[in-house]
Amino acid sequence: MKALIYLILLLFVGTSQAYAWEAFYVLKPNELRFSKAAGIQSQQAAPTDCRARLKEITCIVNPIQDPKESRSCQPGSESMAPAIERIYDVLPAKLQQTFCSMTVLFIENDTEVLGYAGVLTWDANREPQGSFMGIRRTLVEQNYDATSVLGWKEQKAFGLKAPPFVHLPEGPRTSIVLPSSLSALHYVIVHELGHILDFANRANSPEPGSWTALSWETAEKPKADQMFPLWSKLCFYDCKEQLGVADMEDFYHQLAPTDFITTYAAVSPWEDFAESLTFHVMAEHADFEYQIQTPFATYDLKKKWDGLGMKKIWMQDFLNRDLKYPTPLK
Ligand SMILES: [Zn+2]
Question: Could you name the domain of life of the organism this protein comes from (predicted)?
Answer without folding.
Answer: Bacteria
